[in-house]
Each structure stands twice: as structure tokens, then as C-alpha cells.
Amino acid sequence: MRRLVASITAALLVVTACTATPTTTPQTSAGEKPVAGGTLVRAVTGDPKSFNPILVTDTTSYRYIEAVYQDLLRRDAKTNELTGRLAEKFELSKDGLTLTYTLRDGLKWSDGTPFTGEDYKYTAEATMRSKRTTRQNVFQNVLGAQDYKEGKTDEITGIQLKDGGKTIVITFSKTLCTAVEDLSGAGAGYMLPSKQFKQYFDPRTTDTSKTIDDNPLNMAPPASMGPWVFKDFKPGDRATYSKNPNYYLGAPLIDELIIKVYSDAAAIKAALLVGEVSFAAVEPKDWDELAKVDTLKGFEFADFGWNYLAWNADSTKAPWLASKLVRQALTYGLNRQAIIDKIVFGHGKLVYAAQPPANAAYKDDDLNKYPFDPQKAKQLLEQAGAKMGSDGIYRWTDGTPMKMRIETNQPNTVRETILQLTQEQYKQIGVSIDAQLMSFNTLLERIRCCGKDFEGWISGFTGLGPDPDQESLWHSRHIAANEFNRWRYSNPQVDQTLDQIHSGPDCNEATRNKLAHDVDKQLNEDAPVIWLYSGNNLIFGQKNIQNFAPTSVSTIYNIEQWWIKK
Amino acid sequence: MGRFVLRRLVQAVPTLFGILLLTFLLTRLSPSDPVALMFGDRFNVTEEQRQELRHNLGLDEPLPIQFITYLGKVVVLDFGNSFIYHRPVMQVIAERLPNSLQLSIAALLVGLAIGVPLGILAALTRGRLPDHVIRLTSVVGHAIPTFWFGLLFVLVLGVQLRWFPVGSMNAIGKENDILDRLWHMVGPVLTLSLGAISNYPRFLRTQMLEELSQDYVRTAHSKGLRGRAVVTGHVLRNAIIPLVTSLGGILTLLIGGAVITEQIFNWPGLGRLFFEALVNKDFPIVQANVVVGSALLLLSYILRDVVYVLVDPRIKVKA
Fold first, then answer.
1. Out of B32, B39, B86, closest to residue A218 by CB
2. Of A238, A499, A519, which is closest to residue A362 (Cα–Cα)?
């Protein structure tokens, strides 16, 4: 039961977005002719919270939504480059204040209605007026968005349509490089069919009490731009879709998609083994067992997140954390490879700085790898001024024993184990750890603001995304309660570089990736946190599914080409 | 009788109010914030946005105001919208209820259908082979943890031997096939009724033996009643009363679902819904669960008292 609680909690708490670098290439079915027909079953661990993307942010809901709705741009599954999906072209003006999306020709919803910029603008406006969304921050620099939200206007003036809705022009008050990608889903992540939704929410009003939040279409998408058309949904059990003949990349070869709910990873594993499920994400501990089954094929790729051990700069009891040498020593003193082997059974990558390994900006050849070296750790501690005490624990320059309280949340087997390993390993280098477990919420509250009575905590980030912008994690302006520079990292040089990545003037991706690596180099040296590892994504599929080739970016990017070999 | 039931119902009102107050306070005072959970560990979120969402969910009002609003709605069975599912709580519960009911009613019936005859048989064959076998299996069945039995069922009969499905309510494409549904019910129903199958015989056997040694049994025999008539007509009616007591909370079980069994057999019932709601701090669903569950418990106690009167001639209602 405890493990079950842990796995469910993990699944629910993690807010994941998807992901980057492909490590596999699609299997080419040499000379074989694809056979149409059949049913695909995708396993997930929960219901969609809603089929309306405005209202959700969790990975599970996206699994249901990405089958029917689309956005304007997407990351190329193999190169990780931002490319057109429903938009054929996109352009950010030289001054970074005007963004233009040009739609492809002949786009049609599954019911035959043309897809236009109207659908885009509708979704954006519905997002701004929603009272239950958590997604409005995407529009922070879009002109007129705030006025529309407050009911001062009856449209977002900063979003204009041209050429009969084929061109979408968005104007900003300030450049934001990430806007190009973030706004490609009209803030919601995916566009809604305005024709049908309008009967429940008409955006041309100044009455802010009207919202899209409660209407039956939120649980039953009425039209589809994606590869699948929604058929029905049985809560707790499954959602059924049929293929979309109007899908812009061509109708899928497979007739039907079922997204089926399983209670946990164990249930999914059993269903994969008996062939009930076509493809599903699995847990590292199950990899070896599933890999032995000859009807199944496994895929492993890097993730857009990492787990970390952060140092609490607010702590009053550990003055030594201000010393770079000490932080470096603590990094050398932790055997992170052992953690990977123990926790994800080797299915993870060491990370040395802030960019996650799936990201195009990730580069580690010129970073200090901090190989596990207890001798070097001790040497650095002594160099920083610490002296070994008679009890085997170092004393800091002021004579206090180097004792630290590190916290993490429970139930979370992964983090509990990391904490336990950390405690054991730091004992070897003369640093004593007081390990404390608490609920996720308590931990969040403590790190969100001002806790002075603990020295470090273990947590993780998922869904850092394919964009290199991490301004909110490392810029000194985000050192405040409730902000995300929780480690209070401050470096003027880094601040400047982060600003360039965040708001240009050059929003070119290659330039930004290069700058992001400069930041990485400094972070790697300053060691404000210990990057523990990035767990790989593991997906298993039945071998008879052809062209199934998931990558970090997407599992279903080419789903219309899949077919089932008899 | 009518007045008795009415009086009991009126007495239940303050109890229910207490339960409402308690669940409300316990969920609100728990050191966790649904808004924080809804935003998760996402960055790029400002404090204003948090406050706004808190306001939209009605979580920024003073507690007494929140409680009064809540009370007013509960009276008309409106438990509000789920924080997570963005739909009315009663709708979310109604979607799952039938799934849980078919499992728990089947488990109840199977438990009684197997447990009661076994108990009678054990009592009547006291000290002989059938009695020994039934007593032994009862003890073994009682000692097996439900979750272990369920997991073993899935692993051995499902994954290894493939005699039974590994879970779910039906096979893909067989949503309306009754036989397929029954096939999928075998595992969860057996798991759920395991307790009843092993406990009822022990219960009933002890009671039956006690009753069989009573004077009225000898009297019945001596006035020439056939053995079967004595057992079913007289002994069983008296012996079954403790069983009725143990069935008192049955309505709660019926609606509460069975978290572990549903989890293991991937059954989309209420148990799983409530469990997830608890993890997600989805207060409206948690409250509805506790309140409806408690109301049903109260109701089933009243029902139980009525059943006492019906099965036991010695018990009479004083109006």
C-alpha cells in the first residue's frame, strides 16, 4: 500500500511537460506494405481532469488532449528545433515586439469547418477570462490582454487577424523570447474549435462573469484538429477515439485509439505483458523484466528535468554554505552514479548544470564533472578552513560542528532513498546529516519562504522544457518568497546573460542555446545546488506496431503512420 | 414502527451536523493548500495568480462564511465543484457509483451465499470432517490479507496462466458483453468477499451451536417438527442476529468502494476516486465522501434496527 501511495503521489504531483534529443530512429519496415485498421491502446494512470486544455496542466490530461487538439508550432521530434505544425511560418520582428504566425492552407476541423485565426483568438480570450486556469502568465506582455481580462474591452487588441484569418499578428509591450513557442498554443497549449464552444462562451463581451469553465464540451471535444476524433469517455476507465479523416498530415492508418486508465505502474506492466496495452511509459524497476519479453520493445530517452540537492542560503546555522569551496567539496563527496544505479537502476544520466540532458542547449564536455572523490572533498573542506574534530565530524572556522539538516518529502521512495544515501556518504567525508521527511506541501511551504532552520532539501524539476530560458530559476531578481530562485543564487554576470536569453534582443535559438551554456559553466563552478541526475523516460510498445519511435519530444508525433503488423 | 423510524431519523440530524462540521474543519485546517498543489512545482507563477485562484475557489473567505455557504448547498445535495475535475462533485461520484455498486453487491451476495450455508453445515456436522474442513479454511481465509490475495490472483491466474483478465471492467471492444463483465468480476468479487466467506461460517457456527442446545429446540423436536424445519424456521432465525449486526455498516461499504481491491484490479470505482481526491486535496470530493458515507452509516443502523424486529420475535418496538 505504501509503495502504491508513493507511486500514485509521484504521478500526480509531477507536473511534466514534454521533452528532446532522440536516441532512437524509427524502424523502417523494409519493403513491407502498411496494413490499415486495428486499435491502439495507450495506458495512463488517471482520468483527464478536463479535455479543455485551458483548465489543466498535468501530463495525464495532455495525453487525452493531444489526440484531438493541436497547436501552431511543435518541436521536431528528432532535431528538437521549433518547426511549424498548423502554422506554416512564424516570425518575430527585429524589435521583438511583433510575432506573426501564418497558417497552412486548407486546414479543416474534423467536422469540415475551416480552421482559422478565429479559433486561435477565441482560445486566447477564453483563457484570459477563465477563472480556474493557471495559464494566463503566457500573456503577460501581450498588448490588451490584461484589459480584456478585467472587462475593459471586449477583445484582446494585441491579437489581430489578417488575410481572412490566415495570418495571426501578436503585439507585445516587451520582448520575451519564449513567447514564440508559448503562444503557439494560444496560451492554452492547444486551440479549441470556436464554432462549437461559442454557444457556451462568447468572448465578445465585457461581462467577466461569463467563462468557458463550465460547459459539457469540456468533457467531450466536439471537433478535432489532431489525428483522432473523440468518441466517448468512461470515467475511470477509458476514452475512445476514431481516426480523423481531415488530419492535416493525413488520416491515421489505425482505426481507433483507446486511452485506458490503469491504477498504477504494476497494473500497466501486467497489461503490457498480456498484450492488452499497445504502448505505455514504464518504471525503471520494470525495465529488465519487460525487456526480456519478445513481444515488447523498449525505448529509452533523456528527460527535460533533473533531481537536485539544494543548499538553503537562508540557513543561519551553516555559515560554511557561503563558501564555494565547501559547496564544491560537497559535490565531490556525493557518489551520484551510485544514486542512479540504486534508484533508477542505471536508467538515468548525470547532470552537471542547469540545462537538462534532453535540451538542445545541453553540453557537458567543458564542465567540471565532479567525479566522486571523498579525499578531494576532505581536502577542499580543509582548504576552506574546516578542521577535523575528534568525533570524525569537521569543525567550521568558528568551531561549530559541520552538521546539516536536509529535508525531503514523503511518501516518495526515490527522494527518501537519495536522502538516506546522502547521509551515509557525507558521513565518510566528515559531514553529519540530520535527515528529515515531511509532506510535499509542508516542504513546499518551507522552501517557498524563509525557513532558516534547515540547510538543504532534495527535490526535482520536471518539464523544464526544450527552451533554454531558466531566468526564473537563477536570476537574482527572482530571489523572493514564492519565487523560484529558492537557492538565492546571485551573480551579476549570469543575470545579464539570463536577461539576453529571456528577452533578447536576439531571440535566435542557436544564440540563446550558446548563452545558456555560458550560464551553465558558471553554475557548474559555483555549485549552488548539486545536480543529482536526470531520470530517463522509458516507454514500452508491442513489437508489432510499426513506425513506433518515441523520442524525448513526443511519443505520438508520427502516429498517423503507425500500423499494426499481423 | 413508523414513529420509531421517524424518531431515529430526527435523532440522526444533530449527528450529521457534527459530522459536517468536523469534516469541514479537518479538511480546511489540514496543513496543505490545494492551490499549491494545482500549480505544482511549476515556476513562472506569481503570488497574485495564486491569490486569484484561491479567491475563485472561494478559499479566501473566513472559515465560518465558507462553512455556512457549504451547509446551504449540502442541504440540497450540492457539494460544489471538484477542484481537480472542474465538474460538480455529485456528477463525478455518480459516474463511478454504478461500478462500485456492482462489485460490492456481488461481493455481498457471494459472501452470504457461500458463508451462510457453510456455517449451517459446520454447525450441523459438528466434530465431523465437513466441520473441520470449514473451520480450517475459515481460519486460513481470515489470515490472508485481501491485497495479497488480489495481487496473487492477478499475477498467477492473470499474468502467468492467463485464465483470468489482469483487471479492468471489460475487455476492449466488449463493453456491453455481460459474460465478459462477469469474467472480469471473478477476481475482484472473490477478493472482496474473502473476508465474508471466511468469517460468516465461524460466526454462524458458534451461534447455531448455542441455539441448538436451547430448550426450545428440544421442544420443537419433541412436538414432531422435521429437522430441517427446526433449523431454518427456528434456530437460524435466532442465530442470524449477530450476522445482521455485522451487516449493519454494509451500506457504507457499498458506497465507499474498496480502495485496495479497486486499485489492484484496476476497477474504476469510488474507492479509487476518493483515494486520488485525498492525495490531490480535492476537498469537495473528500467531504462529499465522508458526509455521504456517514449518512449512509446512520441510515444503515436504523435499517438494522428495523431488521432486528423483523427477524427476531423477541425484539419489539416501544412506540
1. B86
2. A519
Residue B316 lies in a domain: no
Whether B32 and A439 lie within 8 Å, measured CB to CB? yes
- Taking the Cβ of residue A459 and every Cβ of chain B, the question of whether any pair is shorter than 8 Å is answered with yes
Q: Which residues of chain A does B100 touch, with a Cβ-Cβ cutoff of 8 Å?
A: none
Reported ipTM exceeds the 0.85 cut = no
Q: What is the CA radius of gyration of chain A?
A: 25
Residue where one domain finishes, among candidates B47, B75, B103: B75
Q: Do B95 and A236 touch (CB under 8 A)?
A: yes
Strand order in the sheet with A279-281: A228-234, A238-243, A256-261, A39-44, A279-281, A537-542, A296-301
- What's the rounded mean pLDDT across residues A284-296? 94
Mean pLDDT value across residues A237-256? 96
Q: Are residues B20 and B98 in the same domain?
A: no
Least confident of A138-152, A497-511, B140-154, B237-251: B237-251
CATH value at residue B274: 1.10.3720.10
Say whether both B184 and B256 belong to one domain.
yes
Segment A176-227, tens digit of pLDDT: 898 999 999 988 889 999 999 999 999 999 999 999 998 999 999 999 999 9
Q: From start to end of A199-293, where are the E strands?
A: 228-234, 238-243, 256-261, 279-281
Write the pLDDT tens digit of every residue in B117-136. 999 999 989 899 999 999 99
Contacts of A260 in chain B (CB under 8 A): 168, 172
Q: Are residues B124 and B244 in the same domain?
A: yes
Domains of chain A in start order, with CATH, are: 1-19+56-217 (3.90.76.10), 306-537 (3.10.105.10)
Task: Tell me: cis bond preceding A492? Omega within 30 of 0 counts.
Answer: no
Residue B176 has pLDDT above 80, yes or no: yes
Contacts of B33 in chain A (CB under 8 A): 441, 445
Same domain? B250 vs B198: yes
What is the per-residue pLDDT for A15?
32
Residue B172 to residue A258, Cβ atoms within 8 A = yes
Q: Count CB pairs under 8 A between chains A and B.
A: 139
Question: Would you give the DSSP letter of residue A233?
Answer: E
* Closest of A431, A429, A365, A378 to residue A403, by C-alpha: A431
Best CA proximity match to A211, nearest among A301, A293, A127: A127
**CB pair distance less than 8 Å for A444 and B41:** yes
Q: Could you give the number of structural domains in chain B?
A: 2
Q: Which residues constitute the domain of residue B106? A: 92-311
**Taking a contact as any Cβ pair under 8 Å apart, which residues of chain B between 23 and 52 contact chain A?**
31-33, 36-47, 49-50
Answer yes or no: is B319 within a domain: no
Same domain, B51 and B136: no
**Model's pTM, two decimal places?**
0.83
**Mean local confidence (pLDDT), A252-276:** 93
- The rounded mean pLDDT for chain A is 90
Q: CB-based contact (8 Å) between A262 and chain B? A: yes
Higher pLDDT among residues A470 and B174, named by residue? A470
Beta bridge partners, A438, equal: A409
Q: Which of residues 88-117 of B touch A (CB under 8 A)?
A: 92, 95-96, 99
Per-residue pLDDT tens over the stretch B188-233 = 999 988 888 888 898 889 988 998 888 888 888 888 888 888 888 8
- The rounded distance, in Å, linking the Cα atoms of A468 and A516 is 6
Q: What is the pLDDT of residues B193-205, one digit of tens each?
A: 888 888 889 888 9
Residues B160 and B253 in one domain: yes
Q: Is residue B299 in some structural domain?
A: yes
Query: Both B46 and B192 in a single domain?
Result: no
> For A5-45, what is each residue's pLDDT tens digit?
333 333 333 333 333 333 444 445 456 789 999 999 999 98
The residues pairing with A533 across neighbouring beta strands, listed in sequence order, are A307
Same domain, B112 and B205: yes
**Among candidates B31, B96, B173 on the partner chain, residue whose Cβ is nearest the Cβ of A441:** B31
Q: Give CA–CA dist B59/B75, Å, rounded.
A: 20
d(CA A354, CA A467): 12
Question: Residue A61's closest chain B neighbor by CA?
Answer: B85
